[in-house]
């Protein structure tokens, strides 16, 4: 077989691995109601099926990136796929939530290796203009995998049951292992005979664990103040551990991360953009999915189909980003594409109403999709430029870590904005409903705030409320409060993308004008 064909089959293997690893971040969302019935459990307990994957994925990314750089990225990539497939099978057969939670944690370790090393393997298996094209295609896969979770998950759950979202990984994973073993070229084992920086690995893992877990605690308990030690304690620990990590890395002969990498203004700009994407675009998927299902009445599958308006642009634009990046300034393409997404969020904010339809949404969703379809592939390509071969795995890992941290920060931060605006609107308008006693207005406000914006529609349109003489006015206020809260989220997301766009234009460097260290 000609070398060209072997290269593209190698890319297929790395794309499949990335797709599986990232898809499992979101695909479980739509299966939670079915899981709740199957395990006879509460949604609060089931939240850890999601959270444990996010937590372990973030903690493992940098460690597996470093292991790949040291011992060969192909070896660690294949081992990660095998671990992911085995854990997926265990999850599908899980007899209880404890087994499922443990399986999800193990699965996340495999997913971290697949996600962090695929980009570096592409960079080392391709060169010249083909590298830009290949990284562009991989960026498309990253973009579409996150957005297609509701569509794929909705179809699998409705057609085959909740366990199918795990079992489907088995044949796909076996195919990925075969393609990788046959067609992917191994990278040199940089530093295989050197001592492992256990202190750096342990401290980096503990730092990310404390940060992500603290944010998860805040997300799950929005009534807890930031100063509550159940939240603040973890965030303070993250800061202390991060300082200890920096100190340790400065005094190790061969550190886990060469801190001189962060002298590159270009790398800092790349990581700011990755974080901004996570905060604005990827975390917003969760809020939009709930809005379409709980407030607009779409099924999980119908929601996924409509969200193709965003994700399809990754397929359309990803393959051509290599050509665009070779012809035009990457930092300008990234910066102005982020501005397009910001405009999309502003259009969305203006379109939101108590009678929102898909016809009102799609123009904004197209702009958001264009941003996702252009920025992700270009960011991957730009992030690998000027990086030493032995550090490509770590650079890839850092981009993935900051994207993941951004997503977690976005879910928490945007959620707090939503909760605040929702509660404020209810407080200002419930008491004005004609015929509603003041004491009942206070009680209903507490019920709605405790249930949260996601569940407000269910409370307002319950059979019990439907018999109240003021039901229509009450429902109108709840819908308006939710609209107001979503507008706050969209405004915040727009600002984040505008700031990320400015950071790209100011901090990032085009390859011909940059040096590794500035």
From TrEMBL:
InterPro entries: EmrB-like, MFS, MFS_dom, MFS_trans_sf
Gene3D superfamilies for the chain: MFS general substrate transporter like domains, Multidrug resistance protein D
Major subcellular location class: membrane
Transmembrane segments: 7-28, 48-64, 76-94, 106-126, 133-156, 162-184, 196-216, 231-248, 268-288, 308-326, 333-349, 361-379, 489-508
Pfam families registered for this protein in UniProt: MFS_1
Stretches assigned to the Major facilitator superfamily (MFS) profile domain: 10-512
Localization terms from the record: Cell membrane
UniProt keyword list: Cell membrane, Membrane, Transmembrane, Transmembrane helix, Transport
Membrane association type: Multi-pass membrane protein
PANTHER family per record: BLR6921 PROTEIN (PTHR42718:SF46), MAJOR FACILITATOR SUPERFAMILY MULTIDRUG TRANSPORTER MFSC (PTHR42718)
Protein name: MFS transporter
